[in-house]
Structures are given as C-alpha cells and as structure tokens.
Specification:
28% strand, binds inosinic acid, alpha/beta, three-stranded antiparallel sheet, binds magnesium ion, Rossmann fold, 179 residues, six-stranded mixed sheet
Length: 179
C-alpha cells in the first residue's frame, strides 16, 4: 500500500500522540458524566477504537452508518443515514466521532437531525478537518489535525473501500484514482 502513496501526511506516532491528547481533553470536559460516543462508520472505526481507550471516564458506545461519497473522491452531497438511534440519544451527552470533516454536509445533516431528538448536549470530535472545502458552517468541537485540500487515505479513511487498514495517513498518488 505504501507504494500507492505520494507522501505520508501524518504518521502513526503523530496520530497516537494527538489521539491521546483528544482523549484527555474529552475526559476532562465530561468529568462526572457518561457521554455516548457515536462512531460514524466506516471511516471512523480505527480512530474511534483508539480514542475511546484514551478517555479515562466511563463512556457508552453506539455506531451509525452515513455516506456521502460512493466511490468518487469528491463528496456527492447526498447524506445517507443507514441506521437511526433516536431512542438511544434522548437525554444523553452525545459526541459524534468522525474521521474527517470535508464539505461538512455529513456532520451538519447528522447534527441537525440529532438536535431534534432531545439530546442533552451534542459535540463533534473529528480526527481531520479540511476547512478549504467547507460548504456548511459546521466545525468540530474537538479536532485532531487541520489538513490541506488533498485526498487522504489510511487510519480508517478509504479510497473505494481500500487503504482503511493502512496505519498512517497518506496522500494517494493521483494515478491511483485516475486509473
Ligand atoms: P463531508 O460530508 O463532505 O464533510 O464528507 C465527509 C465524509 O467524506 C467523511 O466521513 C469521509 O468518509 C469522506 N471523505 C472526505 N474527505 C476524504 C478524504 O480525503 N479521504 C477519504 N475520505 C474522505
Ligand atoms: Mg469514505
């Protein structure tokens, strides 16, 4: 997989360090509470698994599927929520765990929907933020890294379902997706 990358943008050591910092920040902010951490599948699964183990307070797990990409490298803007969690989020402190906020459409859609379902509070924790491509005014309350407008893969992020298991975050060679 390394041969398909133009460059490694964020290596596994840098990811580990930053995820640990995010976990400490969340634990401090939610002291005395049991927040509900919702993993937005599939891209966030690797980040989620590492993040929850860096949060030294009780948390509850939930999972949901959303997708706006198909197999292109540019967001289609169509957000598809595959599983709903309505009765599990009412009255809860919810943290949405996302791999990346790109156009912002996915997270804006999920946030707006959840705010109508009686959550006690709602925050977003995103590993990556690509602010140059934002078309909505959402922002992550917790953000791992701000990155340039490049298509990245690895650490859960895919191109056409591949590279999710690559342990670093890399920029793909253009010829890989122009084939
Ligand atoms: P948004 O709705 O445009 O913010 O898109 C968010 C989703 O698009 C993320 O959860 C990712 O699945 C996907 N995405 C956005 N940028 C990238 C990228 O650079 N690499 C891989 N997936 C991406
Ligand atoms: Mg994806």
């Amino acid at each position: 997989m390394r041969n398909d990358m133009k460059t490694i943008l964020i290596d596994r050591e840098a990811i580990k360090k930053r995820v640990s910092e995010l976990g400490k920040e969340i634990a401090r902010d939610y002291q005395g509470e049991t927040p509900l951490l919702i993993c937005i599948l599939k891209g966030s699964i690797v980040f989620y698994a590492d993040l929850v183990r860096e949060i030294d307070i009780p948390v509850h797990f939930e999972f949901m599927t959303a997708s706006s990409y198909g197999s292109a490298t540019v967001s289609s803007g169509v957000v598809k929520i595959v599983s709903e969690l309505d009765n599990k989020i009412a009255g809860r402190h919810v943290i949405l765990v996302e791999d990346i906020v790109d156009s912002g459409r996915t997270i804006a859609y999920i946030k707006n929907d959840m705010l109508t379902k009686g959550v006690k509070s709602l925050k977003v924790c995103a590993l990556l933020d690509k602010p140059d491509r934002r078309v909505t005014d959402v922002k992550a309350d917790y953000c791992g890294f701000v990155i340039p407008d490049e298509f990245v893969v690895g650490y859960g992020l895919d191109y056409d379902q591949k590279y999710r298991n690559f342990p670093d975050i890399g920029i793909l060679k253009p010829e890989v997706y122009q084939k």
